[in-house]
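Narrative summary of target 7.
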Amino acid sequence: MADTRSTTTTRWRQILDERLAEAIATLGAVPGVRGLVLAGSIGRGEPWPLSDIDMLPISAEGIDTEAQIAHRQASLVDWWAASARAQTLDVGWLRFTDQEVTQAIGLKPAEAAQLMSDRRWLHGTDKAYGGRGAADPDGLAEAFAQWATKIRFEPLVVAARVKQWKTQVVDARERAIQAISCNNPVEATLGIREAARALRLVLLESWGERLGSMGREWTRFERMASAHGARHIASQLAALADAQPEDALRRARSAPAWLQERIDLAYAGRMAIGETVTPEQNARDQLAAFAVHVPKRTVQPWGAWMILPADNLEERLATLDMLITMIDS
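Modeled conformation, tokenized:
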């Protein structure tokens, strides 16, 4: 990999702040938008050089703001990409109406737990955790962020979230079994990996933890697992997901140029904020993250770095079943 010591500008915080202000002004001016929840690492005040700008828009009931938001989002991202540094603006399907938010912030934990069966609330409350409101004249976005932060780790809410992740484990496992029976090893590999990632979330919820940043999640998970006495389980899950750090640098050499660039930039960014991470761990985190997204967005061939299909699928399935039983007990 390249020397990454000078690939992160010292202006990264200023750039994020300026683009955040631009996004708030642009999206907050969409007719019908009643507020924006600043979410993710920027909303929590924990940015790093590769942070996305995450926003959850709240719109007036009965006013369709989706097309206008999407148009302005695309214009911003296009402008930023044409400048010195590209920037991601995540303001997609996690959107809510003012009536939904007004009703939600008055719910007790048992009632809030019932919302977790809806993917918008399952992911939206997690993303809004620790966030803050912007373009928010009535304080609705701020109230939503405070409510999400308050209820996120309520025991009944956590139990409901665990139930949803367990359902995803079962569904992904079944898809893997079906793929094996149909002699489709690529789909079987992807199913086992998805089940392992969902099982990881079952553990995190039970520990009162959350992952956060996509490009740093496996290393963060291993640290949390060590703190909770589950380092061996974390290693087994990483093996099922092909997310081990040991061979990451070798795999990275066969990755496309854009992914090698991402690996370099991520490592420099993590160094810039003082994170303790090895080059192997960082490469593994990027490879594992994009191994999830690439099959959804591009067609084959994907390259050797993807390890598709994996070997020993029956053995992997047996390990998955053992971990499911262990974590359920």
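Residues 155-181 form the longest helix (27 residues).
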